[in-house]
Amino acid sequence: MNQTDKIIKSKRNTDIHATLVLSNDKTSKKGLIMVHGFKADRTEGGRFIELAHNLALKGINCICMSFPGCGDSTEDFFNYTLDNCLDDIDTCVNYMVENIGIDLKETGMVGYSMGGRLTCLYVKKHPEIKSVALWAAASYNSKPEESFQGSRFDEMIDEAKANGVCLRKNSFDNSTLNFSLDFLNNMLELKPADAIRDYEGNVLIVHGDMDDIVPLDVAHNTYNSLTTPKHKQLEIIKGANHGFGLWTDEMHQSQELVLKTTEYFLNKL
């Protein structure tokens, strides 16, 4: 197993900071793309790296990347849009195909929270991806009257149209975030629930029953909406909120999350 940090040029000619965890099996075509959540670091508190180590030992090549304005990204958060994130995923997938030799038909994706939203959207464009895992995924279609970061989308859009930017406090760490109109429009126009509904690969959904950021109903609705998967599986972690123990010092919840996901990908890739 080999872990290395790498900078990959994006389609915008910006630097994507990525971490690769590669198998020692140079013939393996198996891959895993790890997609972090809103304003998170690319390792998701180390859980992605733990998952990657587990899988790399079994021949699966893994990559996670920092999105604009997140973690050690040098881009301004203003460039954090779903379109840009999807482009960055595509860039990193292409890197893994061209340089590591993964085959998308033997590749999976795991997305956490907003990363789950992105994963749903990405596999709509790339249905050849074999398996996905959704961790507390924001896999619902947003509406103008719904709240995000404490404000309604329609109010945030009006502000961004008037001022060129919408400023809000980040509910996770109280920093100021400069939302672009493109991000807000993406949140309304791109429909993850519709995108994942007809996916024909394997789907694992893991959610905490105490999640107050993405309610458990979202997981049930996504699971029930899947019409044509080869396999679908819903795992509910008792007592877990959106952080799966990371925020409450109950890391046994994260250990359960990683273990269930490891077992799933070892069986479904």
Chart the SSEs and their pairings.
Blueprint (H helix, E strand, L loop, with lengths): L1 E8 L5 E8 L8 E5 L11 H10 L4 E5 L16 H19 L6 E6 L1 H12 L5 E5 L11 E2 L2 E2 H11 L2 E4 L6 E4 L1 H9 L2 H6 L4 E7 L7 H10 L5 E7 L14 H17 L1
Parallel strand pairs: 3-4, 3-5, 5-6, 6-11, 11-12
Antiparallel strand pairs: 1-2, 2-4, 7-8, 9-10
Helix pairs in contact: 1-8, 4-5
Overview of this protein structure:
This protein has 269 residues and is α/β, with parallel strands linked by helices. The chain has 8 helices and 12 strands. The radius of gyration is 17 Å and the shape is globular.
Q: How much helicity do the residues have?
A: 25-40%
Instruction: Give the oligomer, counting copies of the same chain as homo and different chains as hetero.
Output: single chain
Distance between the termini: 18 Å
- Radius of gyration of CA atoms, rounded to a whole number: 17 Å
Counted beta strands: 12
The number of helical elements comes to 8
Anisotropy-based shape: globular
* Widest sheet: strand ordering: 1-2-4-3-5-6-11-12
